[in-house]
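Morning!

This is the sequence you dropped in the shared folder:
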Amino acid sequence: MGESRVVSCAASGRRPRGWWLLLGLGCGALLHHAHRAVAAPSECADEAPETTPPIRAVDSAARVFIAAGWFTFGANEEDLELARRLCVSERIPFALRLRGCASDELLQGELPARRVYLSAYALDRYEVSRAELDACVAAGGCDPSAHETQHPGLASPSHPAMGLSWPAASALCRFRGGRLPSEAEWERGARGDSGRRFPWGAFYNGALANHGQPSLAFDPTAGVGSSEDGYAYLAPVQAFETAHSPHGLVQMAGNVWEWTADSFVGVRAQPLAVNPAVALDNGQRTVRGGSFRTPALALRVTHREGRPEGRGFIDVGVRCAYDPITSSCVSPVPARSGSTPF
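The structure's back. Tokens below.
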């Protein structure tokens, strides 16, 4: 949104989202760094949402509302040490696991752990399914998957949509009335407001996610499919419901990686304390959550990888985010706990 649309707090007479933070952060900084600036009054009457491609309403029961608040974003040194131990404990050749898991570059992008504030938003309870992608394609809002297949382990309508480039995933979320989540929004959805390391808790449990096992590659985050968790390939999006995150989100670990809106840079490169996000022209976007082909290391809520944004991958899908439905002309009223203004 251009600078011409940003107005001062004094001039607008309205409180932006998280208005009470102005006491500590300053009005100008908050307006400059928030996801959406306050619209000037003269523009309000003419504002209308885009209608091309067509927008599909998504049942609010399929979304999880997450109230505005603080959470811990990123990992600390203790988290990384436990991650290295988990990596070493997996069944890969001794020499490879020592070299790979000891790499300083493997986990440093997760540092440091810090408190950040996010405005209210919602996330899909489940990964977007192949059936939902097909509906978008049929309506003219999406391109088909780059990995069309009839393989029974990859092609069920109940499986997550995969093979989507970053722009294709963005288009799918727009069709659903949403957008891609920021990295911080994704991570808060996965770990809640606590310091847990996996969506289900502090410790790894191989029965709680559709994941793989290490390959013989040098990269310790690389893996191959495994049926030890009950699925050799993709699982239905509603599988592993008992292993949901604190916010009730299902399969935030495993099945498919999930695209986020942010460019792939380290957590240190996202210094904002309010709604951190980063968009750089580096051709890489961050994916989160691991997949059916990745080992336990990648299932951690702070683990992150970058993928070329123009390519679709057989193990990368999407989970969309949604903003509260409020008028830019009226100060939004903070939602009560449990309500879903989406």
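Headline: The first helix runs from residue 9 to 12.

More detail when I'm at my desk.
O.
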